[in-house]
UniProtKB/TrEMBL annotation:
This is histidine kinase. Residues 5-49, 132-201 form the PAS domain. It is an enzyme of class 2 (transferase). PROSITE patterns: HIS_KIN (PS50109), PAS (PS50112). It comes from Duganella vulcania.
Amino acid sequence: MSQFELDDFKRMMEALSSCIILHEAESKTILWANPAACKVLGFTLEELLPLKAPDMSSTAKPYARDIGRRWLHGAVLHGTNVIEWCYRTKQGDDILSEAIATLVHLAHQDVVMVQFRDIGREEQVKREMKRLESRLKEFMQDSNEGLAVLKADGTIEYLSDAGRKLLALQPEQPLPSFIDLCDRGSRPTLQALLQVALPDSISLPINYTVELEGGVRRWHQASCRHIAIENDLRGHLLHFRDITEQVEAEQARRRQQEALEYLARYNAMGEMATAIAHELSQPLAAIGNYLEGAQRRLQNPAPDHEQIAWGLRNAGRQVDHASTIISSVREYVVKLEQAEAMVDLNEILAEIRYFIELKAGEASVAVTLETAATPLLVSVERVLIGQVVLNFAFNAIEEMRGFPVERRRVSIHSERRGNLAVLAVRDQGRGIAADLHQRLFDGFFTSKVGGNGIGLALCKNIIARHRGDIWAEPAAAGGTVFCFALPLPAAS
């Protein structure tokens, strides 16, 4: 058997293409590195020997010095230890490596021999394979979603079978321009998107409408990204699905919302008309009596002009009273078409207080109204929120009609709770069972004989539209408290 000299082993180590660095087992300082390691890292052996981990490793957190020392010490304890380590060259370039640390017992000392190799290329290949795998998964989506590859001018390079079905194209039918399939309103957006060559990783959402044969319109939701597959497809990958049912359902919801808001606005006028009917009857009857008395006195042979003037003056005062009532209604009604704006909730209460007191007076109900000491600015459509308060108040007043007069009390108060403006209306009535509180605002729940419950459902709809919350809770002294909360501006 041939005998190898120590210099032979040294020459073989220096000839290895694998990168090797020797560390002193106890201190972890560098003792030696082979030429391959010096070449890859860009340091001479003399430059490499005094270096520490921060001098030759990536600055990223996973490659901190204490982590590197633990890795090397793990080899001392267990004989070998493997890690993914990112070295940094003298020029500042990062080299992602698989590094194997092995404890070696030499004649005079123990060393840790580190063998490492550049795996950056392998990781890049893995990423490419992962990207291809993701693309394949997208191509293999269920048949309810279509795939198309489009050129910049809208020409269809590829269209999946599911895509043909969504576009109502027969298997043998030539592919038209995708732009031509879209309605005129959608074309500019899609044309602009096809002119942008985005990186593969960026996917942009887009909604558009297509016009199929027979004038049928369908709504699509899609994601679009630029692709450039070597020697294959190049263009924009459109991944689309039909959302016509969702769009039509949303349109129906909006129509219902508009109908409910219309009902809320004009129901307010009906509520006002009911509230003032009794109040107006009194001044009108008085006016009739004063005028009739004045007319009889004028028919006397010797009319008493002072008495006639007195009757006319009193008739005039009653006219002023009726005018005040009508003006209050007019001021409220002219605001029915207002858009959402910043309004003080206390101000809304002040506007509708007159109508609440009219309704309460007719039912002999005592109403207490307490507003917050500071303004409660909320972004609302004031008449809709006023209608919710009126609904709460009128329901509470109706609830109290069946009780003795001394118990007929309703309180209304507003307050600030954190970043919310809260309004509460409390009655002292029968109360509502706890298990029914969650159903109160359902569309057809009611505890009234002959009622249909739509009032509270409408209130819930209005408060939800204004980003608020609505609920009912038992009152401490009996009865029920109806509440809603609206968000206050962040800076308030």
